[in-house]
Specification:
The complex is a heterodimer of chains A (about 100) and B (about 160). In chain A, helix 1 runs parallel beside helix 2. Chain A is of the alpha/beta class and about 100 residues long. The mean pLDDT of chain A is about 85. In chain A, strand 2, helix 1 and strand 3 form a beta-alpha-beta unit. Chain B has four helices and seven strands. In chain B, strand 5 and strand 6 form a beta hairpin. Classes of the chains: A alpha/beta (about 100), B alpha+beta (about 160). At the A-B interface, helix 2 and helix 3 of A face helix 2, helix 3 and helix 4 of B.
Chain lengths: ~100, ~160
């Protein structure tokens, strides 16, 4: 699981997630996600390159989104494209789709 | 069942009860898929269902204790159908009796978890649970889209 960031115009930090967001992958990026959530004002979490999302890793996406939302900053998500249909099904069954900004 | 060795003989994979061991599952499924021509959507479903069921067994069944074993077997069925059998030596627990979590009203409620068994039920075409003298056996079947064996069921023996 890879995580990288790039600074876009307007002070937006794009967070690119690449690979399998399974139990192991979530453990690999949790700390970085929390640091980003605690320090960046405008965050775009780009999930286009995610090929897998397990239920145990939902927290990795949700907790930073909550932290940002709670501090009146903004987070937005870009949906997965790899295995997009399957990953979308996971998001739908867990109701992640209807709550992610 | 051997309680310590972790092994793979192709159709069978034995894991130790540690979450990090689940990382061995996706490459094993890839090899099975290449060997048996398992379609990509079923490969994805197998991957997801095993992640969910194995993490449940390790975290809840074995309460996070290492040095227990989990065995996964792949069984070839009639054309278009693929089965995985998961056996453990944890206290008896039937995941099919677990109700779906309530519809979350917020991100916070999603983060509380409880979605694993729901995903298992959604992505498998059939699930059978069988209590054993010293553990549990879960049989998960996946049917290729368009196969004559269409239909979804869950049963408890």
């Amino acid at each position: 699981m890879q995580i990288s960031t790039e600074e876009l115009e307007g002070g937006v930090t794009r967070v690119i997630l690449d690979g399998r967001l399974d139990i192991v992958g979530a453990q690999e990026i949790d700390l970085k996600m929390n640091v980003i959530a605690g320090t960046k004002k405008l965050v775009l979490i780009d999930m286009q390159k995610l090929s897998f999302i397990g239920s145990m890793s939902l927290r990795t996406l949700v907790i930073p989104a909550q932290a940002i939302k709670g501090s009146r900053r903004q987070a937005r998500f870009v949906r997965p494209e790899r295995n997009g249909r399957k990953c979308s099904e996971i998001q739908r069954h867990t109701y992640l789709d209807s709550h992610l900004p | 069942m051997n309680t310590h060795a972790t092994e793979s003989d192709g159709e069978c994979l034995t894991l130790e009860s540690k979450l990090s061991e689940i990382a061995r599952v996706p490459p094993w499924i890839e090899k099975l898929s290449a060997r048996h021509g398992i379609p990509s959507p079923i490969q994805f479903a197998m991957d997801l269902c095993l992640e969910e069921i194995l993490s449940n067994i390790i975290r809840h069944g074995y309460a996070g204790e290492p040095n227990h074993a989990l065995m996964i077997r792949h069984r070839i069925n009639r054309e278009g159908s693929f089965t995985l059998v998961v056996e453990d030596q944890a206290p008896q627990f039937n995941p099919l009796l677990v109700s779906d979590p309530p519809v979350p009203q917020s991100l916070e409620e999603i983060s509380r978890g409880g979605h694993g068994i729901k995903l298992l039920k959604q992505f498998a075409d059939a699930i059978d649970y069988e209590p054993m003298a010293n553990g549990n056996r879960i049989t998960i079947t996946f049917i290729a889209h368009g196969s004559a064996q269409a239909g979804r069921r869950t049963t408890t023996t």
